[in-house]
Design brief:
Structural class of chain A: mainly alpha
Oligomer: heterodimer
Strand order of the largest sheet of chain B: 6-7-8-3-9-10
Distance between the termini of chain B: 46 Å
Helix content of chain A: over 70%
Largest sheet of chain B: 6 strands, mixed
Number of strands of chain B: 10
Number of helices of chain A: 18
Strand content of chain B: 25-35%
Radius of gyration of chain A: 23 Å
Distance between the termini of chain A: 31 Å
Order of helices and strands of chain A: HHHHHHHHHHHHHHHHHH
Shape of chain A: globular
Order of helices and strands of chain B: EEEHEEHEHHHEHEHEEH
Largest interface: A-B, 31 and 32 residues
Structural class of chain B: alpha/beta
């Protein structure tokens, strides 16, 4: 699957390929977990085994839908924006917004079906692995064997199809409105305004995050062990809310960092100018970084606090605790792995499209080193913004859970969890940005500017 | 070793070959030329004659496969792209058909960028003065997308001149412009030569544009096949017609 994915990216290293990969990985994860429903039904699982299997499938299904929608919105936005000039041309030739929207939705639906079909084999493999894990922790008896279908493929393909169409509708509305001349200008500068709806959605997710945090800290005070369910979701909701605000946050951050960026010389200036005028693309890259750091940091600290609390309470509940921990870590691990992949995926798509811009910088007198320098500064700013938002989002989980389960808003686990996650976020962002830029630099500058 | 005198650009037996063994195209077939400082030269030829390759090799944007290139007395270095970039800074400036301004930078930032990249002070006063000269003193903070094609090309000229290069290369600089804007751009290139002593080398297919130059070089199949000093547009057009016919005849002969 990785080989296929890489080949796709090589041929069409644009937003469409990135959307396809998001759908492919999304469908794989969704199918793997949805097949737990098939296992439960075919194996006639009872009691806690049935509960575990159903819970895994539904929790990941729900979050998967939301995350795949988000990932596809951001990659599809890139794809559509990269073709903004073409869209503007079609508009000037008389294509109606409705027809353009249909084209975008149609393409997304085809991508989703294709991704869903290709995800079956890796989905089966991942599902087998998941069941093996549940066997090994005795959460599901060994005599319940693996089954795939009919629910897994139906849910997997159904959810990515719904996600892709929803994402395409959001993207299409945003890009096909507005006068022709404005679209052509926007295609040049890549400027976007935050829509009111996006602000409302961000507010809604943040409010839900706050709600769950408050519920954790108050209602769950008496059922500290169950608090993991509410607290664990607070950071996901807050991450999504902050990710939706990314365009505004990137602009603010660039405003704040303008001074320090100037100290980084011409690389800093190029980076600042690029980020300021291309908040749309920057936001698409920041989104998965927020999700990755927010959910990752929140969950790891929650688990560390939970472990410490369980240990303090004695070893009686240890076996059950362990099961909860596996479940928690597997589910969240999947989500975090998905978002990490999205960081790489989105950055490659965003960078590949900038070949021409890099060519223009080189013709203006930039050495390859200076182009890489600007890309590094830009990547650092994006990682910083993402990490800052992710940190805030993780507090939605860490603080209420810590106060309920550990008696303090400061979690167990020490600073290393945070530093580790931050290091991974930076390594992913900078490594991908520099690798993709280096790749783009292989094209001679004169050729790069000629191919528009 | 050639010593820098009144020569701005010298090519000695420059060759450039594209493609692999199976499909080899000789774009430049041993081109030699010397252009004096303060000259304005147009390079013309049928499409596929090697005009753009000549410009890219002479400007240090591409490496020749054979021969030597000197700009302002210094030989084009071997080594990395970074070495070539440093060589170009301060020696050459470019004006392209499609402007190639950075879309995220405003007019003034675009013009000061080459200075900044070269690690020189972004002399805003000088950049402003150059922009005044090309008639854009009131557009300093516009983005390229907010300007007309002619205005963008004038920004590109200001950017090419701000480093005070020895040679300014133009690759079809009027190719994307209307007649009036093209005339303005050619007038500015002429002024750079006459008033400021720059050397301009311009590839074009337009006889009227070429008639602004002091001399025209004709290129066919990677070789220089003619030279006209103080040309008129009519002379050039006539010559081009002959070249095109000759090229067609030879292509026909090869096929038959």
């Amino acid at each position: 699957m990785v080989a296929l994915a890489l080949r796709t990216l090589r041929h069409r290293a644009g937003g469409s390929a990135a959307s396809f990969l998001a759908l492919l990985f999304g469908a794989t994860v969704l199918m793997a977990f949805a097949s737990m429903l098939d296992v439960a039904i075919a194996g006639d699982a009872r009691g806690s085994a049935r509960e575990t299997l159903v819970l895994m499938a539904t929790v990941v299904g729900g979050w998967g839908l939301m995350l795949v929608v988000l990932a596809v919105v951001s990659t599809l936005t890139l794809a559509v924006r990269q073709r903004a000039a073409e869209t503007a041309l079609l508009k000037s030739l008389g294509a109606t917004p409705a027809r353009l929207a249909r084209a975008i939705v149609g393409e997304a639906a085809v991508l989703a079906l294709l991704a869903g079909a290709l995800a079956v084999v890796p989905g089966v493999l991942a599902g087998r692995g998941l069941l093996a894990l549940l066997h090994s922790t005795d959460q599901v008896p060994e005599d319940i064997g693996y089954t795939f279908g009919p629910l897994a493929p139906v849910m997997g393909i159904g959810i990515v199809l719904v996600a892709a169409v929803l994402a395409a509708l959001v993207t299409a509305r945003r890009t096909t409105r507005g006068p022709v001349v404005e679209s052509i200008n926007d295609a040049e500068t890549g400027r976007t305004r935050m829509s009111k709806k996006r602000m409302v959605a961000a507010g809604l997710f943040l409010a839900l995050g706050v709600d769950l945090a408050v519920v954790t800290a108050t209602v769950m005070r008496d059922e500290a062990e169950a608090a993991i369910a509410t607290a664990g979701q607070a950071d996901i909701l807050a991450s999504i809310g902050l990710a939706l605000l990314a365009p505004v946050l990137v602009r603010r951050a660039v405003g704040l960092l303008a001074g320090p960026l100037r100290l980084a010389g011409v690389a800093g200036e190029l980076a600042a100018a690029g980020l300021r005028r291309r908040t749309g693309q920057a936001a698409a890259v920041v989104t998965p970084i927020v999700l990755f750091t927010g959910i990752g940091i929140g969950t790891l600290y929650m688990q560390a606090t939970e472990n410490a609390a369980a240990k303090a309470a004695g070893t009686a509940a240890a076996a059950e605790q362990e099961n909860v921990q596996t479940l928690n870590l597997v589910v969240i691990g999947m989500i975090v792995a998905f978002t990490a992949l999205m960081v790489v995926n989105t950055l490659i798509a965003a960078t590949a499209h900038r070949r021409r811009e890099f060519g223009q910088q080189r013709l203006a007198g930039a050495t390859p080193g200076q182009v890489l320098g600007a890309a590094a500064v830009e990547g650092t700013v994006l990682a910083l913004v993402g990490l800052a938002c992710g940190t805030v989002a993780s507090l939605f989980t860490i603080m209420p859970f810590g106060s309920v389960r550990g008696g303090s808003v400061v979690p167990e686990g020490g600073p290393w969890i945070y530093l580790g996650m931050a290091a991974v976020a930076f390594a992913l962002t900078l490594g991908t940005a520099l690798g993709a830029t280096r790749r783009a630099l292989r094209t001679p500058a004169v050729v790069a500017v000629a191919a528009s | 070793m050639y010593e820098g005198t009144g020569e701005a650009l010298r090519l000695e037996a420059v060759r450039k070959v594209y493609g692999d063994d199976a499909n080899r195209v000789t774009a430049l077939d041993g081109v030699s030329l010397a252009l004096p400082a303060g000259s304005f030269t147009a390079v013309m030829g049928p499409s596929g004659s090697g005009k753009s390759t000549l410009l890219h090799c002479a400007a240090g944007l591409d490496r020749p496969d054979g021969g030597r290139v000197f700009v302002d007395g210094a030989e084009l270095p071997g080594g990395s792209e970074a070495a070539l970039t440093r060589f170009r800074r301060g020696r050459v400036g470019f004006v392209f058909q499609h402007f190639n301004l950075l879309p995220t930078l405003d007019v003034l930032q675009n013009v000061t960028l080459p200075l900044r990249l070269a690690g020189r002070r972004a002399d805003r006063t000088r950049a402003r003065a150059v922009l005044e000269r090309v008639g854009l003193g009131d557009r300093l903070h516009h983005l390229p997308a907010e300007l007309s094609g002619g205005q963008q090309q004038r920004v590109a000229i200001a950017r090419a001149l701000v480093t005070e290069p020895k040679v300014v290369f133009g690759d079809e600089p009027t190719g994307a412009l209307d007649t009036r804007s093209a005339r303005q751009v050619l007038g500015l290139l002429q002024e750079a030569v006459r008033v400021h002593g720059r050397t301009v080398v311009m590839v074009t297919h337009d006889p009227v544009a070429a008639s602004y130059a002091d001399a025209v070089l004709f290129l066919t199949d990677g070789r220089i096949v003619g030279h006209v000093a103080r040309p008129t547009a009519e002379q050039i057009a006539e010559r081009m017609t002959h070249l095109a016919e000759a090229a067609e005849r030879s292509a026909f002969a090869t096929e038959a």
